[in-house]
Amino acid sequence: MKNRICVIFTGGTIGSFTNGGVVDLKRESSSALINIYKQRFGDSVEFDELRPLNILSENVQPSDLEKMADCLRGVDKEKYDGIIITHGTDTLCFTANLFSQIFCDISLPVVFVSALYPLDDERSRGVENFAGAVTFIKSVDFGGVFVSFQNYGENCKIHLASRLVSATQFSGEYDSVLNVHFGEIIGGKFVYNQNALNPALKELRQSRKSCAAQKLCTDMVTIQAHSLLNFDYYRFTDVKPKAVMVQLYHSGTVCTEGKEANFKNFLAYCKKLGIEVVIAPIDSRAHTYESAVGLAESCTAAYDISFEMATVKVLLALGSGISIEEELATNNFFEKLH
Question: Tell me: the pLDDT tens digits for 91-103?
Answer without folding.
Answer: 999 999 999 999 9
